[in-house]
Amino acid sequence: MPSYKAPVENVRFLLEDVFGIERYNNLPGFAEASPDLIAAILQEGAKLCEEVLQPLNRTGDLEGCTRHDDGRVTTPKGFKAAYDAFVEGGWIGLAADPDYGGQGLPYTLAAVMNEFASSANMALAMYPGLTMGAIAALMTHGTEEQKKTYLPKMIAGAWSGTMNLTEPHCGTDLGLIKTKAVPNGDGSYAITGTKIFISAGEHDLTENIVHLVLARIEGAPEGTKGISLFVVPKRLVNGDGSLGAANGVSCGSIEHKMGIHGNATCVMNYDGARGWLVGTENKGLNAMFVMMNEARLGVAIQGLAQSEVAYQNAVAYARERLQGRSLTGAKDPDKPADPILVHPDVRRNLLSIRAFNEAARALVLWTALKSDVAHRSGDAAEKQAADDQLGLLTPVLKGVLTDVGFDNAVKAQQMFGGHGYIAEWGMEQFVRDARIAMIYEGANGIQALDLVGRKLPRDGGRAVMAFFNEVGGFVKQHAGDEAMAPYVKPLEAALGHLQQATMWFMNNAMAKPDNAGAGSYDYMHLFGLVALGYMWAQIARTALAKKANGGDAADMEAKLLAGRFFMERTMPESAVHLARISSGADTMMAMPAEMF
Amino acid sequence: MPSYKAPVENVRFLLEDVFGIERYNNLPGFAEASPDLIAAILQEGAKLCEEVLQPLNRTGDLEGCTRHDDGRVTTPKGFKAAYDAFVEGGWIGLAADPDYGGQGLPYTLAAVMNEFASSANMALAMYPGLTMGAIAALMTHGTEEQKKTYLPKMIAGAWSGTMNLTEPHCGTDLGLIKTKAVPNGDGSYAITGTKIFISAGEHDLTENIVHLVLARIEGAPEGTKGISLFVVPKRLVNGDGSLGAANGVSCGSIEHKMGIHGNATCVMNYDGARGWLVGTENKGLNAMFVMMNEARLGVAIQGLAQSEVAYQNAVAYARERLQGRSLTGAKDPDKPADPILVHPDVRRNLLSIRAFNEAARALVLWTALKSDVAHRSGDAAEKQAADDQLGLLTPVLKGVLTDVGFDNAVKAQQMFGGHGYIAEWGMEQFVRDARIAMIYEGANGIQALDLVGRKLPRDGGRAVMAFFNEVGGFVKQHAGDEAMAPYVKPLEAALGHLQQATMWFMNNAMAKPDNAGAGSYDYMHLFGLVALGYMWAQIARTALAKKANGGDAADMEAKLLAGRFFMERTMPESAVHLARISSGADTMMAMPAEMF
């Protein structure tokens, strides 16, 4: 059976030592979050994830969710009690507005808890995760009445949230949405249509479910400009906040899918259900994007989370499994064989995962801090700069962390040989669960298009120029530092490739947009490489300083080695991405459709 | 529901046009295999796979195998009839020795049928596949009596075969095997022990099962030098060839695993079962290697097979799914959206799979022809040269075709968005089934070590030098050919990287073997790139010639485009592999075990 230990120390090192979280004490909620409080919160969260959520991961996968004939959905045994423990710990409202019952602590800490919970039990963590996304959307676009009606209950975990976008004939292209909204004359709308792939659409964890639904108001313009967002509770809410009658929404079926069996993926049928407009008419996609952007970061974190838990179990196995002898002579001559961790190829495999995980965690925290600044800073310029970076980095994190996270789960599974393929060892579940993160909240190809088509050119390239300046500035600052050279030189080379690729788009994609589409996926991964490399360079700088001061020498040396591994073995990929991007679209577009 | 169409035309193009199979007519079995007969055989095989095997793929996955309390194992509904149809088609004995009932046709044709059958239904195809491997082992190392007893029944499909290597505490390191063999005094041995992960170990398709079992004869030396191979029938065979009493071997349980649910993966308990020595005492690993090498090629083909069927279904979906508009303006303005095949990133994804599949198929056929020459040629030098290449290429094909085949199944699944994650579409089954091919018959890390540690240095590097000479000779021959330049120049660059990597091992791994282990995996993939690139260069040469002669211009142009895509987008990876190899083992070996 797999196990999990939350990487509390690594998070503290990143927050306190690398990113100096005390520098953010001017932001609301940060001054309260002293290092001691952060440590206590992380310990508490780790305990919940390790002891309550993780033991239900495999049983939840085996049992799955059940839809009954009356449309009710039952989650796997133990999920309700675990969800209640999650709620009682105050985790849903950790970063939410205190005016509605939240604790107002940094979103960054909620992102950390999301990693821990997703490592422990991704299917279970999705239920509160979706609620947190829905809270963010209502917080930004809801009326005061909507906020008062829904937020306290959602923050308290009594009601959960969902997002309803996809329909059978449309996922990526939301302009094709057919679900319609007809005014009832009392300020509400009658919502009718079918939504598919609705995670946590129906379940037995909460007394109500708050659906955020994209639909088209009768007579609205065609395409994406005619989509509005509605809040549609499963049970109607009385004037006094108590629960009223059932609304006209029900779960028609649940999907049988590759993984995340513990989360109910529902077909939701809306049959004149009463809904209320959230935000402006026909601007529903804008409003939903608040939830989607938060969800995309959440999904990126799931990629890291599966990579981390898969890594931990692969290392434990590599320490215990005795097979073969070291190439340089027996290391454990008294035993029948050496542990497989002596073999270079096993170390290569494991280090490639570990070197990603630490940098990816840093990148998540760095981006989460930008999100906190973007949402909480009182300084307009600082706020804008942070929001720029958040927008730029969100598709990169979503695409790269889920792609590599999945690959890493596969690599970790590989360490187990045949046992990795057998269900009881749990490794194959990590692979199946990790797979969805590359698909939902915008398939990774869409993330790449979002990055290249929208985020790059926005505001004359302001965000990407700021990113280049920051990384380039770091490189320049440490140009003469010999101890930093193994980290800075590869970063400089990869940054150069990224800048060349950006320039190539400017020169070749304006007149011929297919050249942007053809290079978008590689550009996203090239961007991710540079961002991860920049994280390692910052970690290395901190580790060198701490080591010089005599602090945690062995730990710091391990970080320096893992970072060096990343620079030697992963960073060289930047040149391939540039070569692919520069090869353009001609060959692929020349192929006639019928010849594929 | 997924579908499948066997790539008969592509196989004929490769065999007839690219490799000129008529050049092999001096080999036994080849003269009979005229182009017309080959076409008829391939059509017949395609029909069986498309109409009989494929429709059972998804139902077999859903139902799986069942072990009953008495130890019997039932395969999914329809498998027995489909197996019988496979047997009646004479497919098991297609390439087997006519003296024992085989048809003596080229092994190359059996390899093609293996691809078709594995695309259609990998779990089902494994049953006869293992029999064919066992036939090869008995053919090479069995006594005349053993051959007469077992081969006709196995070739006729009445009895099936298995290979029993793995035990709970050992897989890769077979020197640790504990299963023991005690002489009964009548020429037979009593075999006792537990074997795990035995594919097709017990089932209801045949009246008998012939287990080939590695065990240690009492008093044998420790380690791999004390392992012998035994043939252990499930039911004993009377002197007249009829079936006798049940032998002391039974299926203790079947595994619940990620995929290939239709194939029974068994724990086999040997309790004093009667077995007979195959080959020489204590030389069992050598004997088993005959079966393993054939099996490794078979597994490589499974990687290609899953990539092919996943690709076909992804293309069909990309043609039908309407979503979004082309970046260069609507292509189907009358429809609500364009088919997603208009998007460059979708084409990139699909072409990366297709460009691999065609080259991988060529590489399989090229290697299979080497196998035919190695086993059938009367010319000692030709035989030796072919055997060298077969030995060199087997780990490359096993490692690279299964790694990339799995990645491609994942890429094809991605084209379906959320639908790819839903079981009923069938794409996630391809991913789950393809995953095992990276693990069994020697995990891919072991293939890499076999390549670098054994196949490279063998006979003073004779095999690898011959490979370099052949590819280098092709490059030189076409150096001045402008039409070939887009294929030859990238091949030349990658060959250069491969040669540099080989030289790096010579200079750095002799004194420090960890440097070989640290670079072995990248070396295997670098080798694969060059081999696949060489296949594309040969295909391009043929396609250019046929196009110039006015033959199948559109088809040939599509091949030239796919090959160009491979050269532009995949070949550049060679530089990264070289960079990684050259970074050596220092960083990874410096990490203390407790710091992983």
Question: What does the model show?
Answer:
Chains A, B: Its EC number is 1.3.99.41. Chains A, B: Residues 80-157 form the Acyl-CoA dehydrogenase/oxidase N-terminal domain. Chains A, B: InterPro entries: Acyl-CoA_dh-like_C_dom, Acyl-CoA_Oxase/DH_mid-dom, Acyl-CoA_Oxase/DH_mid-dom_sf, AcylCo_DH-like_C, AcylCo_DH/oxidase_C, AcylCoA_DH/ox_N, AcylCoA_DH/ox_N_sf, AcylCoA_DH/oxidase_NM_dom_sf. The first copy, chain A, is built from 17 helices and eleven strands. Chain A is α+β, with helices and mostly antiparallel strands and 596 residues long. In chain A, strand 4 and strand 5 form a beta hairpin. In chain A, helix 7 (284-320) packs antiparallel against helix 8 (344-376), helix 8 (344-376) crosses helix 15 and helix 9 (380-414) packs antiparallel against helix 11 (444-455). Chain A starts with 7 loop residues before the first helix and ends in a 6-residue tail after the last helix. At the A-B interface, helix 7, helix 8, helix 9, helix 10 and helix 11 of A face helix 7, helix 8, helix 9, helix 10 and helix 11 of B.
Largest interface: A-B, 96 and 95 residues
**What is the spatial order of strands in the main beta sheet of chain A?**
4-5-11-7-6
Beta content of chain A comes to: 5-15%
Total strands of chain A: the figure is: 11
The poorly predicted ranges of chain A are none
General form of chain A: globular
Helix percentage range of chain A: 55-70%
Number of helical stretches of at least 4 residues of chain A: 17
Major sheet attributes of chain A? 5 strands, mixed, barrel
**Quaternary structure:** homodimer
What series of H and E elements makes up the topology of chain A? HHHEEHHHEEEEEEEEEHHHHHHHHHHH
Radius of gyration of chain A: 24 Å
Span of the ends, CA to CA of chain A? 44 Å
Derived from helix and strand composition plus strand pairing, the structural class of chain A reads alpha+beta
Estimate the mean pLDDT confidence of chain A.
97
